[in-house]
Design goal:
With 167 residues, the protein is an alpha/beta fold. It has five helices and five strands.
């Protein structure tokens, strides 16, 4: 199962759209982690039983996933708080260790997103994820069809090649 993880809490965001379109390129089951905004703020002293239901769901979905795809916007040159908070909830439990992941920043134009993507890569490295591919993507270069799929072209080919690296 491929788990799609958007840095944006909005289901209609550009990053969420990109993830869904990328998920359509994957031949297996795809699940969207669209509940990250429901996770409580991480505090180490709260990381013990009984865990909040949203935390249990997040950890379970990551554990079940054979691979994950992350796409993030940039908020003040960094990760959105909702994504950083979700990653913090995985620090002590280890579900992301060894998992193959794709990492994208999806912003309006270069160089926006570079620092956010780098921050995400550092967090994933700390969590021992296996980053198999990463790339900046820009909204001005990606075209979606009315169906929500990616329009044929260089960006679709790049994303297909990245998805093909996943189990």
């Amino acid at each position: 199962m491929l788990l799609l993880v958007s840095g944006s809490p909005r289901s209609d965001s550009a990053n969420s759209r990109l993830l869904r379109a990328t998920g359509n390129l994957y031949p297996g089951e795809v699940t969207e982690a669209g509940y990250l905004a429901n996770l409580p703020i991480f505090q180490p002293e709260r990381d013990r039983a009984p865990w909040p239901e949203a935390v249990l769901q997040w950890r379970s979905d990551v554990a079940r996933a054979t691979a994950l795809t992350f796409s993030t916007p940039a908020y003040l040159h960094n990760l959105p708080g909702v994504l950083k908070n979700a990653l913090d909830w995985l620090a002590s439990s280890g579900e992301l260790s060894g998992k193959p992941v794709l990492v994208f920043s999806f912003t309006p134009h270069p160089p926006r997103g570079d620092r956010a993507r780098q921050s995400l890569l550092w967090s994933l490295q700390a969590l021992k994820a296996n980053v198999v591919a990463e790339s900046p993507l820009y909204q001005q270069e990606v075209t979606f069809l009315a169906s929500g799929d990616l329009a044929p072209g260089d960006q679709q080919a790049l994303l297909q090649a990245a998805v093909d690296l996943l189990p």
